[in-house]
Amino acid sequence: MMDAVRQDAREAVADLSFSQALAEGLSLTPKEIPCKFFYDAAGSALFDAICALPEYYQTRTEVALLRRNAGEIASLIGADAEIVEFGAGALRKVRILLDALSRPRGYTPIDISGSYLRDVTRRLAVDYPNLALCPVVGDFTMPLHIPKMNGAVRRAGFFPGSTIGNFRPDTAMTLLRRMREMLDGGGLLVGVDLVKDPAILHAAYNDAAGVTAAFNKNLLARANRELNAGFDLEDFAHYAPYNPKAQRIEMYLVSLKRQSVRLGGRIVEFQAGEAVHTEDSHKYTIESFREIAARAGFIPRAVWADENRQFSLHWLESR
Ligand code: AVJ
């Protein structure tokens, strides 16, 4: 849990950047808030709840793909591997990988939350006493140096959950290229949500229980908690349409009236109906994703998808 007293210096920097990002994003036209700020303790708990929703097929489909193909994935990765996870996600997924691998040597999760990383490594240490745990607190979208482990190990990247969808295709390509450099010759296992019936996509981001709406509005709640902001969550609507031309879900917080909101020492003005863009979630076809992976310098080797072609897992090699 995020506990103000236990926050270390690195997390204080992360908080400062939320305040800067919010001030900057809300002064733009159109207004925006970067989606990486969804994931404070409350937002991470809401995201876990999203993953268990009946409408949100992504997580259970990806977990089933990992389970079903773990043996083949493990033999492609090879023995004595160091798994580098971009954004420490649900431990459930990396455990499937670790359990299938032959002599996994190390686990290097990269995440912006130091408290989350401490929690993850503490829990994994119990079950994997022979695994070197090397957490890196940082933003994996920035150039990062990953310290070399002792001994000859091959690196394999792990980027599940279709987090790649949060980036525009050109940026996703650049990010993949950067990951390829960080992996130092190793391959990358990446989960990618697929283009499909817009009604299915729409339902996944507009669930009946309103969990995704609460997740979206948590950005405002977080600003109230951390930055002395005066957002009334009732005065904003969750709006998440699918844009078929751009092949992405777009998420917004829409001001339901003309209002002035306190944000730290400033006042932010909202017009009635004004939208704050909070997230894009891009969808790919298997072919279109393999194409950007190839443009990033990877060799797309293997791909697994469920029988309904809702979600895909790609194994990309560096050489
Ligand atoms: C974690 C980025 C994959 O885009 O589906 C879920 C985040 N947003 N519901 C996604 C999210 C709204 C999620 N990713």
Query: Compounds present?
Result: N,N,N-trimethyl-histidine
Mean pLDDT: 93
- Cα Rg: 20 Å
Q: What's the tally of helices?
A: 9
Report the strand count. 15
Binned, the helix content reads 25-40%
Low-confidence blocks of residues: 1-14
Largest beta-sheet characterization: 8 strands, mixed
Structural class: alpha/beta
N-to-C series of helices and strands: HEHHEHEHEEEHEHHEEEEEEHEE
Report the portion of residues in β strands: 15-25%
Shape: globular
Measured between the Cα atoms of the first and last residue, the distance is: 41 Å
Give the SSE layout.
Blueprint lengths: L8 H17 L5 E2 L8 H11 L5 H21 L3 E6 L4 H10 L5 E6 L2 H14 L4 E2 L2 E2 L16 E6 L9 H15 L3 E7 L4 H7 L6 H17 L8 E4 L2 E2 L4 E8 L3 E5 L2 E5 L4 E8 L3 H10 L3 E7 L5 E7 L2
Parallel strand pairs: 1-13, 2-3, 2-6, 3-4, 3-5, 6-7
Antiparallel strand pairs: 7-15, 8-10, 9-10, 10-13, 11-12, 14-15
Helix pairs in contact: 2-8, 3-4
The structure holds N,N,N-trimethyl-histidine.
The site of N,N,N-trimethyl-histidine has 12 residues, from helix 8 and strand 13.
